[in-house]
Protein backbone atom coordinates (compact mmCIF):
# COMPACT_ATOMS: atom_id res chain seq x y z
CA UNK A 1 0.00 0.00 0.00
CA UNK A 2 1.65 3.20 -1.09
CA UNK A 3 2.01 6.18 1.25
CA UNK A 4 0.42 8.34 -1.49
CA UNK A 5 -2.85 6.43 -1.15
CA UNK A 6 -3.06 7.72 2.43
CA UNK A 7 -2.04 11.33 1.84
CA UNK A 8 -3.79 13.89 4.01
CA UNK A 9 -4.34 16.29 1.10
CA UNK A 10 -7.03 18.91 1.80
CA UNK A 11 -7.80 17.59 5.28
CA UNK A 12 -6.90 20.96 6.79
CA UNK A 13 -9.63 22.68 4.76
CA UNK A 14 -12.68 23.07 7.06
CA UNK A 15 -14.97 23.15 4.05
CA UNK A 16 -13.80 19.65 3.13
CA UNK A 17 -15.07 18.17 6.39
CA UNK A 18 -18.22 16.02 6.08
CA UNK A 19 -21.35 17.26 7.86
CA UNK A 20 -22.28 15.75 11.26
CA UNK A 21 -23.93 12.35 10.98
CA UNK A 22 -22.39 11.66 7.58
CA UNK A 23 -21.04 8.11 7.17
CA UNK A 24 -17.76 9.67 6.04
CA UNK A 25 -17.03 10.38 9.72
CA UNK A 26 -16.24 6.67 10.04
CA UNK A 27 -13.54 6.96 7.38
CA UNK A 28 -9.91 7.90 7.86
CA UNK A 29 -7.22 9.51 5.69
CA UNK A 30 -7.63 8.75 2.01
CA UNK A 31 -11.28 7.84 2.60
CA UNK A 32 -10.26 4.41 3.91
CA UNK A 33 -12.34 2.48 6.41
CA UNK A 34 -10.99 2.15 9.92
CA UNK A 35 -10.87 -1.25 11.62
CA UNK A 36 -11.22 0.40 15.03
CA UNK A 37 -13.23 3.08 16.78
CA UNK A 38 -16.73 4.37 15.91
CA UNK A 39 -18.17 2.54 12.93
CA UNK A 40 -16.08 -0.59 13.55
CA UNK A 41 -18.11 -2.07 16.41
CA UNK A 42 -19.18 -4.88 14.05
CA UNK A 43 -16.04 -5.83 12.15
CA UNK A 44 -17.86 -8.58 10.25
CA UNK A 45 -20.07 -5.91 8.66
CA UNK A 46 -17.03 -3.74 7.93
CA UNK A 47 -15.34 -6.62 6.13
CA UNK A 48 -18.41 -7.17 3.96
CA UNK A 49 -18.46 -3.46 3.04
CA UNK A 50 -14.79 -3.68 2.11
CA UNK A 51 -15.46 -6.80 0.03
CA UNK A 52 -18.27 -5.03 -1.84
CA UNK A 53 -16.11 -1.96 -2.45
CA UNK A 54 -12.74 -3.51 -3.28
CA UNK A 55 -13.07 -7.26 -3.78
CA UNK A 56 -11.00 -10.00 -2.09
CA UNK A 57 -8.18 -7.66 -1.01
CA UNK A 58 -9.06 -4.26 0.43
CA UNK A 59 -7.15 -1.26 1.85
CA UNK A 60 -8.00 -0.21 5.39
CA UNK A 61 -6.57 1.45 8.50
CA UNK A 62 -5.39 -0.12 11.75
CA UNK A 63 -5.18 1.69 15.10
CA UNK A 64 -3.29 4.94 14.70
CA UNK A 65 -4.50 5.10 11.09
CA UNK A 66 -1.72 2.75 10.00
CA UNK A 67 -2.30 1.45 6.45
CA UNK A 68 -3.02 -2.26 6.04
CA UNK A 69 -4.42 -4.57 3.40
CA UNK A 70 -7.26 -6.83 4.59
CA UNK A 71 -7.22 -10.15 2.76
CA UNK A 72 -10.88 -11.15 2.56
CA UNK A 73 -10.82 -13.96 0.00
CA UNK A 74 -10.29 -17.59 0.94
CA UNK A 75 -8.11 -18.29 -2.10
CA UNK A 76 -6.08 -15.10 -1.58
CA UNK A 77 -5.46 -15.88 2.09
CA UNK A 78 -4.25 -19.37 1.22
CA UNK A 79 -1.96 -17.96 -1.47
CA UNK A 80 -0.49 -15.43 0.96
CA UNK A 81 0.28 -17.89 3.76
CA UNK A 82 1.64 -20.47 1.30
CA UNK A 83 4.02 -18.16 -0.59
CA UNK A 84 6.91 -17.38 1.79
CA UNK A 85 8.96 -16.02 -1.11
CA UNK A 86 6.54 -13.07 -1.29
CA UNK A 87 4.98 -12.77 2.19
CA UNK A 88 6.41 -13.32 5.67
CA UNK A 89 5.67 -12.67 9.37
CA UNK A 90 8.75 -10.51 10.11
CA UNK A 91 7.21 -7.28 11.40
CA UNK A 92 10.51 -5.44 10.97
CA UNK A 93 9.76 -5.30 7.24
CA UNK A 94 6.57 -3.27 7.70
CA UNK A 95 7.00 0.27 6.36
CA UNK A 96 5.28 1.96 9.36
CA UNK A 97 7.72 0.15 11.67
CA UNK A 98 10.68 1.21 9.56
CA UNK A 99 9.69 4.88 9.21
CA UNK A 100 8.49 5.29 12.81
CA UNK A 101 4.81 5.96 12.12
CA UNK A 102 3.96 2.86 14.19
CA UNK A 103 4.40 4.38 17.65
CA UNK A 104 5.51 2.38 20.72
CA UNK A 105 2.24 3.22 22.48
CA UNK A 106 0.08 1.81 19.69
CA UNK A 107 -2.36 -0.65 21.34
CA UNK A 108 -1.47 -3.28 18.73
CA UNK A 109 2.25 -3.12 19.51
CA UNK A 110 2.16 -6.44 21.47
CA UNK A 111 1.16 -8.04 18.16
CA UNK A 112 3.43 -5.92 15.99
CA UNK A 113 6.68 -5.80 17.94
CA UNK A 114 9.14 -8.33 16.55
CA UNK A 115 10.11 -11.14 18.89
CA UNK A 116 12.63 -14.00 18.47
CA UNK A 117 9.86 -16.58 18.10
CA UNK A 118 9.11 -19.12 15.40
CA UNK A 119 5.92 -17.17 14.62
CA UNK A 120 8.02 -14.17 13.51
CA UNK A 121 11.13 -15.92 12.21
CA UNK A 122 11.90 -16.85 8.61
CA UNK A 123 14.35 -19.07 6.75
CA UNK A 124 16.81 -21.21 8.69
CA UNK A 125 15.93 -19.62 12.02
CA UNK A 126 12.25 -20.44 11.47
CA UNK A 127 13.17 -24.02 10.62
CA UNK A 128 15.25 -24.32 13.81
CA UNK A 129 12.64 -22.86 16.17
CA UNK A 130 9.59 -24.32 14.48
CA UNK A 131 11.34 -27.69 14.26
CA UNK A 132 11.83 -27.71 18.03
CA UNK A 133 8.18 -26.84 18.72
CA UNK A 134 6.85 -29.35 16.19
CA UNK A 135 9.25 -32.02 17.45
CA UNK A 136 8.09 -31.53 21.02
CA UNK A 137 4.45 -31.59 19.84
CA UNK A 138 5.07 -34.92 18.14
CA UNK A 139 5.90 -36.53 21.51
CA UNK A 140 2.47 -35.81 23.01
CA UNK A 141 0.47 -38.94 23.82
CA UNK A 142 -2.91 -37.83 22.50
CA UNK A 143 -4.78 -40.78 23.94
CA UNK A 144 -3.48 -39.93 27.42
CA UNK A 145 -4.25 -36.25 26.88
CA UNK A 146 -7.83 -37.01 25.84
CA UNK A 147 -8.26 -39.01 29.06
CA UNK A 148 -6.86 -36.06 31.00
CA UNK A 149 -9.26 -33.66 29.23
CA UNK A 150 -12.15 -35.88 30.31
CA UNK A 151 -10.93 -35.95 33.91
CA UNK A 152 -10.32 -32.19 33.89
CA UNK A 153 -13.86 -31.60 32.59
CA UNK A 154 -15.30 -33.74 35.39
CA UNK A 155 -13.17 -31.82 37.89
CA UNK A 156 -14.46 -28.45 36.66
CA UNK A 157 -18.08 -29.63 36.51
CA UNK A 158 -17.74 -30.84 40.10
CA UNK A 159 -17.26 -27.22 41.13
CA UNK A 160 -20.70 -26.14 39.94
CA UNK A 161 -22.78 -29.31 39.44
CA UNK A 162 -24.52 -29.02 42.83
CA UNK A 163 -25.57 -25.43 42.17
CA UNK A 164 -27.66 -26.11 39.08
CA UNK A 165 -26.32 -22.90 37.51
CA UNK A 166 -23.01 -21.86 35.97
CA UNK A 167 -21.27 -19.52 33.58
CA UNK A 168 -19.67 -21.78 31.01
CA UNK A 169 -17.20 -19.09 29.94
CA UNK A 170 -15.55 -18.19 33.25
CA UNK A 171 -16.14 -21.53 34.99
CA UNK A 172 -15.38 -23.88 32.10
CA UNK A 173 -14.21 -22.58 28.72
CA UNK A 174 -11.53 -20.29 30.14
CA UNK A 175 -10.25 -22.92 32.58
CA UNK A 176 -10.22 -26.25 30.76
CA UNK A 177 -7.52 -25.25 28.22
CA UNK A 178 -5.21 -24.05 31.01
CA UNK A 179 -5.66 -27.25 33.04
CA UNK A 180 -4.76 -29.28 29.95
CA UNK A 181 -1.79 -27.13 28.93
CA UNK A 182 -0.36 -27.27 32.46
CA UNK A 183 -0.51 -31.07 32.24
CA UNK A 184 1.11 -31.08 28.78
CA UNK A 185 3.87 -28.72 29.95
CA UNK A 186 4.51 -30.87 33.03
CA UNK A 187 3.39 -28.27 35.61
CA UNK A 188 -0.06 -29.38 36.84
CA UNK A 189 0.74 -27.92 40.26
CA UNK A 190 0.98 -24.43 38.73
CA UNK A 191 -2.66 -24.34 37.62
CA UNK A 192 -4.59 -21.69 39.54
CA UNK A 193 -6.94 -18.77 39.02
CA UNK A 194 -4.06 -16.31 38.79
CA UNK A 195 -2.48 -18.15 35.86
CA UNK A 196 -5.83 -18.29 34.06
CA UNK A 197 -6.45 -14.58 34.58
CA UNK A 198 -2.90 -13.62 33.57
CA UNK A 199 -3.21 -15.60 30.33
CA UNK A 200 -6.51 -13.85 29.59
CA UNK A 201 -5.08 -10.43 30.44
CA UNK A 202 -1.76 -10.57 28.61
CA UNK A 203 -3.01 -10.35 24.98
CA UNK A 204 -5.36 -7.44 25.73
CA UNK A 205 -2.70 -4.77 26.16
CA UNK A 206 -4.25 -3.57 29.44
CA UNK A 207 -2.48 -1.60 32.17
CA UNK A 208 -1.81 -4.88 33.98
CA UNK A 209 -0.60 -6.77 30.90
CA UNK A 210 3.07 -6.21 31.75
CA UNK A 211 2.58 -7.60 35.25
CA UNK A 212 0.69 -10.58 33.82
CA UNK A 213 3.52 -11.20 31.38
CA UNK A 214 6.09 -11.02 34.17
CA UNK A 215 4.14 -13.54 36.26
CA UNK A 216 3.75 -16.00 33.38
CA UNK A 217 7.40 -15.71 32.37
CA UNK A 218 8.49 -16.29 35.97
CA UNK A 219 6.41 -19.48 36.11
CA UNK A 220 7.79 -20.70 32.78
CA UNK A 221 11.42 -19.80 33.49
CA UNK A 222 11.27 -21.74 36.78
CA UNK A 223 9.69 -24.67 34.93
CA UNK A 224 12.44 -24.54 32.30
CA UNK A 225 15.15 -24.59 34.97
CA UNK A 226 13.53 -27.58 36.70
CA UNK A 227 13.19 -29.57 33.51
CA UNK A 228 16.69 -28.70 32.35
CA UNK A 229 17.96 -30.26 35.59
CA UNK A 230 15.45 -33.12 35.70
CA UNK A 231 13.83 -34.01 32.35
CA UNK A 232 10.50 -35.81 32.33
CA UNK A 233 8.20 -37.11 29.63
CA UNK A 234 6.49 -33.78 28.96
CA UNK A 235 6.40 -31.11 26.27
CA UNK A 236 8.81 -28.83 28.13
CA UNK A 237 11.50 -31.49 28.51
CA UNK A 238 11.29 -32.50 24.87
CA UNK A 239 11.47 -28.85 23.81
CA UNK A 240 14.60 -28.38 25.94
CA UNK A 241 16.25 -31.59 24.73
CA UNK A 242 15.49 -31.13 21.03
CA UNK A 243 18.60 -31.12 18.81
CA UNK A 244 17.88 -27.46 17.97
CA UNK A 245 19.37 -26.66 21.41
CA UNK A 246 17.10 -23.81 22.43
CA UNK A 247 18.34 -21.55 25.19
CA UNK A 248 16.36 -21.27 28.42
CA UNK A 249 15.02 -17.91 27.26
CA UNK A 250 13.94 -19.37 23.90
CA UNK A 251 12.27 -22.31 25.64
CA UNK A 252 10.33 -20.08 28.05
CA UNK A 253 9.32 -17.65 25.29
CA UNK A 254 7.96 -20.47 23.12
CA UNK A 255 6.18 -22.02 26.10
CA UNK A 256 4.51 -18.64 26.63
CA UNK A 257 3.55 -18.42 22.96
CA UNK A 258 1.98 -21.90 22.98
CA UNK A 259 0.28 -21.29 26.34
CA UNK A 260 -1.31 -17.96 25.40
CA UNK A 261 -2.41 -19.00 21.91
CA UNK A 262 -3.81 -22.32 23.16
CA UNK A 263 -5.59 -20.68 26.08
CA UNK A 264 -7.20 -17.93 23.99
CA UNK A 265 -8.13 -20.02 20.97
CA UNK A 266 -9.44 -23.04 22.89
CA UNK A 267 -11.46 -20.87 25.28
CA UNK A 268 -13.12 -19.17 22.33
CA UNK A 269 -13.69 -22.45 20.49
CA UNK A 270 -15.27 -24.13 23.52
CA UNK A 271 -17.53 -21.16 24.21
CA UNK A 272 -18.56 -20.89 20.56
CA UNK A 273 -19.43 -24.58 20.20
CA UNK A 274 -21.42 -24.59 23.43
CA UNK A 275 -23.24 -21.38 22.47
CA UNK A 276 -24.45 -22.94 19.23
CA UNK A 277 -25.51 -26.13 21.01
CA UNK A 278 -27.51 -24.08 23.51
CA UNK A 279 -29.09 -21.63 21.06
CA UNK A 280 -29.71 -23.66 17.90
CA UNK A 281 -32.34 -26.40 18.48
CA UNK A 282 -31.67 -27.99 15.09
CA UNK A 283 -27.94 -28.17 15.76
CA UNK A 284 -28.51 -29.76 19.16
CA UNK A 285 -31.07 -32.19 17.76
CA UNK A 286 -28.56 -33.41 15.18
CA UNK A 287 -25.98 -33.82 17.93
CA UNK A 288 -28.36 -35.68 20.25
CA UNK A 289 -29.80 -37.78 17.44
CA UNK A 290 -26.44 -38.95 16.14
CA UNK A 291 -26.71 -37.21 12.76
CA UNK A 292 -23.71 -35.11 13.80
CA UNK A 293 -20.74 -35.97 15.99
CA UNK A 294 -19.07 -33.52 18.37
CA UNK A 295 -15.94 -33.34 16.15
CA UNK A 296 -18.20 -32.43 13.21
CA UNK A 297 -19.86 -29.77 15.36
CA UNK A 298 -16.42 -28.39 16.17
CA UNK A 299 -15.45 -28.20 12.49
CA UNK A 300 -18.70 -26.41 11.67
CA UNK A 301 -17.93 -23.87 14.40
CA UNK A 302 -14.38 -23.40 13.08
CA UNK A 303 -16.02 -22.26 9.83
CA UNK A 304 -18.74 -20.08 11.36
CA UNK A 305 -17.00 -18.55 14.38
CA UNK A 306 -13.23 -19.22 14.28
CA UNK A 307 -11.31 -18.62 17.53
CA UNK A 308 -9.26 -15.87 15.85
CA UNK A 309 -10.91 -13.49 13.37
CA UNK A 310 -7.66 -12.22 11.91
CA UNK A 311 -3.94 -12.67 12.43
CA UNK A 312 -1.71 -9.60 12.55
CA UNK A 313 0.04 -9.67 10.16
CA UNK A 314 1.94 -10.73 7.02
CA UNK A 315 4.34 -8.44 5.18
CA UNK A 316 5.33 -8.14 1.53
CA UNK A 317 8.98 -8.98 0.90
CA UNK A 318 8.83 -7.50 -2.61
CA UNK A 319 6.49 -5.68 -4.94
CA UNK A 320 3.75 -8.06 -6.03
CA UNK A 321 0.07 -8.29 -6.90
CA UNK A 322 -2.78 -9.96 -5.05
CA UNK A 323 -6.33 -10.11 -6.46
CA UNK A 324 -5.55 -7.22 -8.79
CA UNK A 325 -4.23 -4.99 -6.00
CA UNK A 326 -0.71 -3.66 -6.29
CA UNK A 327 1.13 -4.64 -3.12
CA UNK A 328 4.39 -2.82 -2.48
CA UNK A 329 7.40 -4.12 -0.60
CA UNK A 330 6.92 -3.38 3.10
CA UNK A 331 3.11 -3.37 2.97
CA UNK A 332 1.27 -5.19 5.75
CA UNK A 333 -1.60 -7.62 5.19
CA UNK A 334 -4.12 -9.00 7.65
CA UNK A 335 -4.78 -12.72 7.41
CA UNK A 336 -8.57 -12.55 7.24
CA UNK A 337 -9.66 -15.82 8.82
CA UNK A 338 -13.29 -14.93 9.57
CA UNK A 339 -13.96 -13.02 6.32
CA UNK A 340 -12.12 -15.70 4.33
CA UNK A 341 -14.31 -18.40 5.85
CA UNK A 342 -17.44 -16.64 4.53
CA UNK A 343 -16.02 -15.84 1.10
CA UNK A 344 -19.09 -16.16 -1.17
CA UNK A 345 -16.96 -17.87 -3.82
CA UNK A 346 -16.33 -20.69 -1.32
CA UNK A 347 -19.60 -20.55 0.66
CA UNK A 348 -22.38 -19.12 -1.51
CA UNK A 349 -24.85 -20.47 1.06
CA UNK A 350 -23.67 -19.75 4.62
CA UNK A 351 -26.29 -22.15 5.98
CA UNK A 352 -24.82 -25.05 4.05
CA UNK A 353 -23.46 -27.94 6.11
CA UNK A 354 -19.65 -27.72 6.35
CA UNK A 355 -19.23 -30.68 8.73
CA UNK A 356 -16.16 -32.71 7.92
CA UNK A 357 -14.74 -30.00 5.67
CA UNK A 358 -11.38 -28.88 7.09
CA UNK A 359 -10.45 -26.36 4.42
CA UNK A 360 -11.34 -23.43 6.69
CA UNK A 361 -8.68 -20.88 7.69
CA UNK A 362 -9.05 -21.27 11.45
CA UNK A 363 -5.55 -22.69 11.88
CA UNK A 364 -3.93 -20.60 9.12
CA UNK A 365 -1.72 -22.53 6.67
CA UNK A 366 1.68 -22.70 5.05
CA UNK A 367 4.93 -22.58 7.10
CA UNK A 368 3.17 -20.83 10.01
CA UNK A 369 0.19 -23.16 10.23
CA UNK A 370 -0.78 -23.78 13.85
CA UNK A 371 1.25 -26.76 15.10
CA UNK A 372 -1.10 -27.37 18.03
CA UNK A 373 -4.38 -27.66 16.16
CA UNK A 374 -4.82 -31.32 17.15
CA UNK A 375 -4.62 -30.31 20.80
CA UNK A 376 -7.23 -27.61 20.22
CA UNK A 377 -9.56 -30.06 18.51
CA UNK A 378 -9.07 -32.62 21.29
CA UNK A 379 -9.88 -30.08 24.03
CA UNK A 380 -13.05 -29.02 22.21
CA UNK A 381 -14.14 -32.53 21.16
CA UNK A 382 -13.65 -34.23 24.53
CA UNK A 383 -14.55 -31.22 26.68
CA UNK A 384 -17.88 -30.54 24.98
CA UNK A 385 -18.81 -34.23 24.82
CA UNK A 386 -17.94 -34.85 28.48
CA UNK A 387 -19.81 -31.74 29.64
CA UNK A 388 -22.99 -32.60 27.71
CA UNK A 389 -22.90 -36.18 28.97
CA UNK A 390 -22.48 -34.99 32.54
CA UNK A 391 -25.30 -32.39 32.39
CA UNK A 392 -27.50 -33.50 29.45
CA UNK A 393 -30.39 -31.21 30.44
CA UNK A 394 -28.28 -28.04 30.33
CA UNK A 395 -30.07 -24.95 29.00
CA UNK A 396 -29.28 -21.30 28.41
CA UNK A 397 -30.57 -19.29 31.38
CA UNK A 398 -31.03 -16.00 29.50
CA UNK A 399 -32.36 -14.87 26.15
CA UNK A 400 -29.91 -15.38 23.30
CA UNK A 401 -30.15 -11.64 22.54
CA UNK A 402 -28.74 -10.89 26.00
CA UNK A 403 -25.42 -12.60 25.25
CA UNK A 404 -22.56 -10.12 25.03
CA UNK A 405 -19.33 -10.19 23.07
CA UNK A 406 -16.01 -8.47 23.56
CA UNK A 407 -14.64 -7.88 20.06
CA UNK A 408 -11.14 -6.89 19.06
CA UNK A 409 -9.51 -6.99 15.67
CA UNK A 410 -8.09 -10.40 16.61
CA UNK A 411 -11.22 -12.18 17.82
CA UNK A 412 -14.72 -12.11 19.25
CA UNK A 413 -14.83 -13.39 22.82
CA UNK A 414 -18.11 -14.37 24.44
CA UNK A 415 -18.28 -12.53 27.78
CA UNK A 416 -20.67 -14.93 29.55
CA UNK A 417 -22.66 -18.07 28.79
CA UNK A 418 -25.08 -18.50 31.73
CA UNK A 419 -26.75 -21.91 31.96
CA UNK A 420 -29.07 -23.85 34.23
CA UNK A 421 -29.57 -27.58 34.77
CA UNK A 422 -30.78 -30.10 37.32
CA UNK A 423 -28.32 -30.11 40.25
CA UNK A 424 -26.34 -33.31 40.60
CA UNK A 425 -23.72 -34.85 42.91
CA UNK A 426 -19.99 -34.50 42.47
CA UNK A 427 -18.00 -37.38 41.01
CA UNK A 428 -14.69 -38.68 42.24
CA UNK A 429 -11.88 -37.53 39.95
CA UNK A 430 -8.12 -38.05 40.10
CA UNK A 431 -6.93 -35.16 37.98
CA UNK A 432 -3.16 -35.24 37.52
CA UNK A 433 -0.80 -37.99 36.50
CA UNK A 434 2.91 -38.42 37.23
CA UNK A 435 5.21 -37.96 34.22
CA UNK A 436 8.08 -40.36 33.68
CA UNK A 437 11.68 -39.29 33.25
CA UNK A 438 12.85 -38.88 29.70
CA UNK A 439 16.43 -39.19 28.42
CA UNK A 440 18.16 -36.05 27.18
CA UNK A 441 18.31 -35.67 23.41
CA UNK A 442 21.50 -34.91 21.59
CA UNK A 443 22.20 -33.66 18.10
CA UNK A 444 21.97 -36.55 15.72
CA UNK A 445 20.03 -38.74 18.13
CA UNK A 446 16.51 -39.96 17.68
CA UNK A 447 13.73 -37.47 18.17
CA UNK A 448 11.70 -37.50 21.34
CA UNK A 449 8.91 -39.38 19.60
CA UNK A 450 11.34 -42.24 18.99
CA UNK A 451 12.83 -42.35 22.50
CA UNK A 452 12.37 -45.73 24.21
CA UNK A 453 10.16 -45.75 27.27
CA UNK A 454 11.74 -46.75 30.59
CA UNK A 455 11.33 -50.44 31.34
CA UNK A 456 9.16 -51.20 34.37
CA UNK A 457 11.03 -52.91 37.24
CA UNK A 458 10.47 -56.60 37.79
CA UNK A 459 7.50 -57.10 40.14
CA UNK A 460 8.35 -58.42 43.61
CA UNK A 461 6.28 -59.66 46.54
CA UNK A 462 6.55 -58.23 50.04
CA UNK A 463 9.38 -60.60 50.92
CA UNK A 464 11.47 -59.30 48.06
CA UNK A 465 11.22 -62.52 46.04
CA UNK A 466 10.56 -61.97 42.31
CA UNK A 467 7.08 -62.97 41.29
CA UNK A 468 6.60 -65.54 38.58
CA UNK A 469 6.69 -63.97 35.15
CA UNK A 470 4.29 -65.19 32.43
CA UNK A 471 5.49 -66.08 28.99
CA UNK A 472 6.26 -63.08 26.76
CA UNK A 473 3.18 -63.61 24.62
CA UNK A 474 0.93 -63.87 27.67
CA UNK A 475 2.42 -60.78 29.28
CA UNK A 476 1.90 -58.78 26.11
CA UNK A 477 -1.72 -59.85 25.74
CA UNK A 478 -2.48 -59.16 29.39
CA UNK A 479 -0.81 -55.75 29.26
CA UNK A 480 -2.75 -54.67 26.19
CA UNK A 481 -6.05 -55.90 27.65
CA UNK A 482 -5.45 -54.16 30.97
CA UNK A 483 -4.50 -50.94 29.21
CA UNK A 484 -7.70 -51.21 27.17
CA UNK A 485 -9.80 -51.66 30.30
CA UNK A 486 -8.07 -48.68 31.92
CA UNK A 487 -8.69 -46.60 28.78
CA UNK A 488 -12.40 -47.48 28.90
CA UNK A 489 -12.47 -46.33 32.50
CA UNK A 490 -10.89 -42.98 31.58
CA UNK A 491 -7.67 -43.69 33.47
Report the β-strand fraction as a percent range.
Answer: 5-15%
Number of E strands: 12
The assigned structural class equals alpha+beta
Low-confidence parts, pLDDT < 50 over ≥5 residues? 1-22, 441-491
Please explain how this structure is put together.
By secondary structure, the protein is of the alpha+beta class. 42% of the residues lie in helices and 9% in strands. It contains 17 helices and 12 strands. The strands form 4 sheets. A 5-stranded mixed sheet has the order 1-2-8-5-3. The protein has a 3-stranded antiparallel sheet with strand order 4-12-9. Strands 6-7 form a two-stranded antiparallel ribbon. Helix 9 (193-201) packs across helix 10 (209-229), helix 12 (248-279) crosses helix 14 and helix 12 crosses helix 16 (373-390). The longest helix has 32 residues, at 248-279.
Task: List the keywords.
5-stranded mixed β-sheet; disordered C terminus; disordered N terminus; 3-stranded antiparallel β-sheet; alpha+beta; 491 residues; 42% helix; 12 strands
Write a compact overview of the structure shown:
42% of the residues lie in helices and 9% in strands.
SSE blueprint:
Layout: H1 43-54, E1 57-62, E2 66-71, H2 74-81, E3 87-88, H3 95-99, H4 109-112, H5 123-137, H6 142-158, E4 165-167, H7 169-173, H8 176-185, H9 193-201, H10 209-229, H11 235-240, H12 248-279, H13 281-289, H14 294-304, E5 310-316, E6 320-322, E7 325-327, E8 332-336, H15 337-341, H16 373-390, E9 395-396, E10 405-407, E11 412-414, E12 418-420, H17 472-488
Parallel strand pairs: 2-8
Antiparallel strand pairs: 1-2, 3-5, 4-12, 5-8, 6-7, 9-12, 10-11
Amino acid sequence: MTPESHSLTDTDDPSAAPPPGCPAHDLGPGGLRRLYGPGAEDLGAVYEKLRAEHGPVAPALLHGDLPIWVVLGHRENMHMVSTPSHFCRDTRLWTPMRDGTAKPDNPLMPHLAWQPLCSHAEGDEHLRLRGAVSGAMSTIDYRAIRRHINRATQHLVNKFCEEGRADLVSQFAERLPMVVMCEIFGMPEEFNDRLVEAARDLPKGTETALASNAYIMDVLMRLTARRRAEPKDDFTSHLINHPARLTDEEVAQHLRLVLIVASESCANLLANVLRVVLTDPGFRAQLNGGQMTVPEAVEQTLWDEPPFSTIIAYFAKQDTELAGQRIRQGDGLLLGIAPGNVDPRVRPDLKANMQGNRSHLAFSGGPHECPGQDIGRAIADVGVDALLNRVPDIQLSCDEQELRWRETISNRHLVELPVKFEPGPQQEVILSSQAESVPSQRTGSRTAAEQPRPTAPEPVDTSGTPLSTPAPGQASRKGVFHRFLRWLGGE
